[in-house]
Design brief:
The complex is a heterodimer. Chain A is mostly beta strands. Chain A has one domain: Folate-binding superfamily (Folate-binding fold). Chain A is 10% helix and 37% strand. Chain A is built from one helix and six strands, in the order βββαβββ. In chain A, the strands form two sheets. In chain A, strands 3-4-5-6 form a four-stranded antiparallel beta sheet, with no helix packed on it. In chain A, strands 1-2 form a two-stranded antiparallel sheet. In chain A, a hairpin with a 3-residue loop joins strand 1 and strand 2. The radius of gyration of chain A is 14 Å and the shape is globular. Chain B is α/β, with parallel strands linked by helices. Chain B has helices at 4-17, 26-34, 62-75, 107-121, 123-127, 145-160, 170-176, 204-217, 262-267, 332-345, 390-407, 421-424, and strands spanning 52-58, 80-83, 99-100, 138-142, 166-169, 192-196, 200-201, 221-223, 228-233, 239-244, 247-256, 276-286, 296-299, 304-308, 314-324, 354-365, 371-374, 380-384. In chain B, the strands form three sheets. In chain B, strands 1, 2, 8, 9, 10, 11, 17 and 18 form an eight-stranded mixed beta sheet that branches. In chain B, strand 14 (304-308) and strand 15 (314-324) form a beta hairpin. The longest helix of chain B is centred in the last third of the chain and has 18 residues, at 390-407. Classes of the chains: A mainly beta, B alpha/beta. Chain A binds chain B through residues 1, 12-14, 18, 20-21, 34, 37-38, 40-47, 50, 52, 68, 70-73, and chain B through 261, 263-264, 272-278, 322-327, 331, 333, 336, 366, 422-423, 435-438.
Chain lengths: 90, 440
């Protein structure tokens, strides 16, 4: 599996570390325990399209949002997140 | 070969005269060998779905088959169907590295896995089917004084729970596994280890076939090539059966034991989110060798476990790939990692050829411990969250799940393996890794 980093280009998946489901929104600090438990523990875990975070830990160290198919491992999009969102090579 | 015909004929007539012939015996082996192995009977019937069963088990893996077997044997519930999307033995029960151990530390896990070990010890006799359970020992290597201390703690916790464990010195390890790299200047020098001598391996296919045959003998219908596509409900919302690719089947109770497919199957019942992620775990086997390694060894400074199968192949594996996956194949970085760990431990294995590698989909729970529970819907029961330790749990998982289904309440052994523990703080985090499924 190779991931095309918007900064560094196409690199082996071995350079990246996984950050998990990118659709989880952490609740407000004063949200209910139920909301926090759901955010921390419960996952949709789809077979098919999955939005997820990866960090290019052994490259530019940027965090990326990757759209990947969990059945075929095919990657359909990669984008920078955080302050660099929207930048980089597409 | 002309001489074979009269011998075979004589044996056939001898068999016809004998009223009781064991299905599997030295005699039947000889008889079938002489008759070209054409007369073996299938070990279980190819069942056609009936309109209704008392219990339907979704998933014909080791855990589902064991559940059906113990439902019939322990609870007298024989009007049971096991529905399997593929074929028996095609999923994780045929993809694991066959290791059996009960060297856990947290009470809920240690008692459960020790009960599994006790069932393993009597399983071949119980099933009247040789599952080739071999108590050759499971040795965890320690690579620092601190790790020896941690193993002493774990070993003591096991002994307090009535489970065998022994600390091994460096010298004892060197004598026990002569091929290990014992050099003092190794990157991770071996300081000793913790061994559970009652641990070992079993023949994974035989476990699937033995439980399938045992369940079938009790009247359980094993229905292969039958995918569950949805669940039937009555007006109160209670689950009353399953919709399958072979039609609707009614049921008093429905148990789900589908490992890596848990989220997808439960979604068909309207459960959208669970504390589970599906990850791919790879396993490997080398070319067959003469006897070389007579125990199970695990590396303590990384993650690798290796044993030698009765066919002679070295069977080994390491970490999961570490990202959500439903593909039954992994990626090369993990292959490289696993092989390099293997050569760190056993430099002399460097000249062996890799025969095969494959992947299985693990139901990684958020705390690394399983779920065997009533619910989450009325009429439904869930068995999941095995991470990559499901094989050793097969007998106890089936035994406890059968109890839970039959009594509508968990047994003491699985009462901690609830689904709501993730929402009430009672997680069972053996590794202390936190709510990150790919760290367990």
């Amino acid at each position: 599996m190779r991931i095309t980093c918007p900064v560094c280009g196409e690199r082996s998946a071995a350079e990246f570390s996984y950050g998990g489901d990118a659709t989880i929104e952490m609740p407000a600090l004063d949200a209910s325990p139920e909301a926090w438990n759901a955010a921390v523990y419960d996952r949709e875990n789809p077979r098919g399209a999955h939005a997820e975070f990866w960090q290019h830990a052994q490259g530019c160290r940027c965090w990326l949002k990757v759209e990947r198919d969990t059945l075929t491992h095919k990657i359909s999009s990669v984008a920078l997140v955080g302050k660099a969102a929207g930048k980089g090579r597409s | 070969m002309r001489i074979g015909t009269p011998i075979a004929g004589a044996i056939r007539s001898a068999v016809n005269r004998t009223t009781i012939v064991a299905e599997y015996s030295a005699f039947s082996l000889l008889k079938n060998a002489l008759t070209g192995n054409r007369d073996w009977k299938p070990a279980w019937r190819a069942a056609v779905p009936k309109p209704r069963y008392d219990v339907i088990i979704v998933g014909g893996g080791g855990h589902g088959l064991a559940t059906a077997y113990y439902l019939a044997k322990e609870h007298g519930i024989t009007n049971v169907a096991v529905v399997e999307r593929g074929y028996i033995g095609g999923g994780n029960v045929g993809r694991n590295t066959t290791i059996v151990r009960s060297n856990y530390m947290l009470p809920a896990n240690s008692h459960f896995y020790e009960w599994s070990m006790k069932l393993w010890e009597g399983l071949s006799r119980d099933l009247n089917y040789n599952v080739m359970f071999s108590q050759r020992g499971v040795l965890n290597l320690a690579h620092s004084p601190a790790q020896m201390d941690a193993y002493a703690r774990r070993g003591n916790a096991m002994r307090v729970a009535g489970i065998d464990s022994d600390l091994m010195t460096r010298e004892e390890v060197a004598k026990f596994v002569p091929d290990l790299d014992m050099s003092r200047d190794a990157r991770f020098p071996i300081h000793g280890g913790l061994i559970q001598r009652r641990g070992g391996t079993a023949r994974h296919d035989a476990v699937a076939w033995g439980f399938a045959r045992g369940a079938d003998r009790h009247g359980v219908d094993i229905i292969e090539n039958c995918e569950v596509t949805g669940f039937l409900r009555d007006d109160s919302g209670r689950i009353t059966g399953v919709e399958t690719t072979r039609g609707e089947i009614g049921a008093g109770k429905v148990g789900v034991a589908v490992a890596g497919s848990t989220s997808e199957v439960m979604r068909r019942a309207g459960i959208e989110r669970l504390p589970i992620e599906s990850h791919v775990l790879q396993a490997f086997v080398s070319e067959p060798l003469k006897p070389l390694l007579d125990t199970v060894v695990t590396f303590g400074a990384g993650h690798l476990y290796v044993s030698q199968s009765d066919k002679g192949g070295l069977v080994f594996g390491g970490d999961i790939d570490g990202y959500n996956s439903y593909a039954q194949r992994g990626n090369l970085p993990v292959v490289e990692d696993v092989v390099s760990l293997m050569l760190t431990m056993f430099p002399s294995y460097g000249r062996l050829k890799l025969l095969r590698s494959w992947g299985g989909i693990m139901d990684m729970s958020m705390d690394g411990s399983p779920i065997i529970t009533t619910g989450p819907l009325p009429g439904m029961y869930l068995n999941s969250g095995w991470c990559y330790g499901g094989f050793k749990a097969t007998p106890a998982s089936g035994w406890c799940f059968a109890w839970t289904i039959a009594k509508d309440a968990p047994h003491d052994l699985n009462s901690a393996f609830t689904l709501d523990r993730f929402h009430n703080g009672a997680v069972i985090d053996e590794r202390g890794a936190g709510p990150v499924p790919w760290h367990h």
